[in-house]
Amino acid sequence: METLKSILQEIWNQLKPPQAFSWQTSILLSVFSWCLSFLTETEVVEEFLAWMGWFFLTFGIAWGLWNTKLNIFGWHIRPSPWIAGAMVCLLLFRGAEENEALPFPLALTIWPLVSAAIAILPRLFPYFSFKLPDPPLRQELMILFLVSLLMSCWFRFHFLVQDWIAEYPTILADDFSKSGFIIRFDMNEVPSEPAGIEHLDALNERLETELEGQPWQVAERWLIERDDNIQEFENSSRFNPNGRQEDLFWRFQSQVPPQQSRTDEYTLNLRAVWNGPSSRPGGYFLERSCVVRQAADQGVDPQTALASPITFLECDPTDKTKRWISPPPTTTNTTGGVG
Question: What is the pTM of this model?
Answer without folding.
Answer: 0.66
